[in-house]
Amino acid sequence: MDFFKALIPGAILTFVVSMVMGRAHSTGGWLQIQHYFIQGHGIYWSWVLLAIGTGLAWMIMAITPK
After folding, report:
1. Model pTM?
2. Which of 23, 44, 53, 62 reaches 20 to 30 Å from 1, CA-CA?
3. Separation CA 4–CA 17 (nearest Å)
4. Could you list the pLDDT tens digit for every one of the 66 residues in the chain?
5. Dihedral of alpha carbons 44, 49, 53, 54, sign
C-alpha cells in the first residue's frame, strides 16, 4: 500500500523538476527529460525521474512508524 501512496509525491516531484529543467531546454542528462504533446498541450516528463522519486518516497513511507 505504501507504494501506491508514494506514486503521488513521486509524480509531483517529476512534474516540477521536469518542468523547470525542460523550460531551460535541458534534457537532464541521464534523466532523459522529454517534451510530450498531449491533445495540443506540451508537457515535460521523465520516466527515470518518476522511478527515482517514487522509490525515494516509498522508502521514506516504509521506514516511517505507523
Report:
1. 0.89
2. 44
3. 21
4. 889 999 999 999 999 999 999 999 999 899 999 999 999 999 999 999 999 999 999 999 999 987
5. positive
